[in-house]
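Hi everyone, sorry if this is the wrong subforum. Our group has a chain we'd like a structural model of before ordering constructs, and none of us has done structure prediction before. Sequence below.
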Amino acid sequence: MQTYVVRARDSKGNPVKRKISAPSPAEARSSLREQGLFVQELTQDRSFFEILNTLDLKQIQNSMVKVTVKDKAIFSRQFAALVNAGVALVRGLGVLADQCPNPKLKRALQEISSDVQQGTNLSDAMRKHPQCFDGLYVSMIQAGEVGGVLDDVLNRLSKLLEDVARLQNQIKSAMAYPITVGIIALLVFLGMTIFLLPIFAGIFEELDAELPMFTQIMLNISNILRTPIYSIALIIVVMVLAFAYRQYYKTRVGRETIDRFSLKMPLFGDLIQKSCTARFCRTFGALSRSGVPILTSLEIVRDTAGNQVIANAVDEARREVQSGGMISLALQREQVFPIMAIQMMSIGEETGEIDTMLMKVADFYEDEVEQAVKALTSIMEPIMIVFLGGMVGSILVAMYLPMFAVMDNIK
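Answer:
Right subforum, don't worry. Here is the predicted structure as tokens:
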């Protein structure tokens, strides 16, 4: 016997909700009709453990996995080698799906292989999986199919993705050191404030020492952190501020404001501008070289810019090209790219070799990003050491200042 939850109406039209036991849904409906009830919805009443057993935990785990740039770069390189060797698309996709370590990409490749086997174009099959293959990837694959140079396009894609992955790793390496030292400094500060400072506070109280203002402030902070209500309130405030920031960033005005500020930040602003310039030139150059129409290329580059201010500049350039203007002039008016990059793009437009110029600009600014990362790391190291020493030193000063007052009283 199964238990069912029933939503029905009686002969007067009044809503009725009840549970009924029956061997099958058909018999449950028949029994309810005999009671004069019109069944609107009949669902099986399952316990929490029954619902938990029906969940596909592997599928949930796979949905949480992300397809990284490195995963797509490796797939593109291997797929290009198979296509160049004359292996059929369906067989090549099947082979790569079998050896793919990423479960989400593996599932996508299996479905793409099935669609291609049924006569769907490779680009159309990939378009069904935006979490694995974005607009940039699909557009280049489509251009390779139309031009009959799929292996060349896949090689360009792998080179593009490898360059993007290297650029991301360089930026992450620049951010890793200050973030790590900042977390350590915060943990040391909290540990000394919560556990060490109260011990000295008890000693000073027994000695009847007059506490300086700075020590009293640090003790007040310690009391707040050791009080559960205040600590929970502080955590809630931080969470609310983080949520408000995320919601504000989702708006167009908020995204533009924050991204514009990030381009003007000391130390990091120049690095962000150079990395965005390198990404724009590399992506736009790869799309142009693969035969993707220029307006479509600019739309893709706009959507993958990673910075709303730069995306607005690219969109303005797209409108300029649509009305017969030049990309370099529109970008120059927006003043978000370096002058050298604008001049190189202008020369490329005049000579008809804009894709070559874009690749050269991308190479140059990727080297600039690498040098900027090294310079930033060398600058951040002493700054973070001073920051860590300042946080620890403030605790020590707060503990030792009352000792001088005690010594004076003893004298």
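For your construct planning: The chain has a mean pLDDT of 81. The CA atoms of residues 331 and 410 lie 73 Å apart.
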